[in-house]
Predict the structure of FBD domain-containing protein.
Amino acid sequence: MECSPTSKAPPPQLNGLSHSNIMIKTGIVKSWLTDLALLGCECSGSVFLATPLLQRCRLDFVGSGTCSLALAAPLVESLEVQGFNYITLHGGDRLKRLTISKNTGRVNTVGIDRLPVLEQLSLRGVQWSWGAVSHVLQCGAEAKHLVMKVEFCGDADTLQPFPEVDLVEFFNSHPKLCKFEVHGAMFASLCQKNSLKNLDSRFLISSLEEVLITVRSPLNAEQKLITIESLVRYSPRLRRMVLRISQMKNCHEAADEFFEEVSKFAHMSNGRVRIE
């Protein structure tokens, strides 16, 4: 692995060790580290880290080539990774916070097992394969705070929309979800014709308290409005919903109509719904 810093960043947290004690080119890191941050590294190839005592880890890698990460860290509690196409984590029984992002290119696969104590999960990037998204969501079913900010799907270079996601199945699969942030295309996947087909009076989103939704397109406006109304109706503990209307042109007639309908709904929500 060839890795060189491309921007100034604080040295890895090495419990008093100096930066020179990390042999980045050979991929060897001192095995008794508990904190590690590698920021702004340019990499093309494979990264392997085996750190049995690591608890907090942040890896921020850049580069146009394919980059894979294999991390063996059975005690890790907080993990942030950016810039990898392929990710494998060995050991996640203690993981509480997980962030995976890819500013350019595509996240192809994420190999993890069930994360039983996960509290916060964040998926970000331009493009993820749907297999990677669905697998991470399945393994992170215990999450209390979920951020879904991925623009496109697809297993090839062609950018594709996300498939339909059943809203009832989604929230039943994440029963502890307290705070939910969903953006653009990923919100649209919850608003398709078949996404709400299983709604009935028995359905409850029992733990949800805060929601942030970013809407970027007025397309399929009726289904989006129904989804927003359903989230409020079936979430008895909901305290706040923020609707962020982003990058819609005011001159677009459909956008104006959508904004008007959303505004009416927010006005009747007893202060729980706010528009930004």
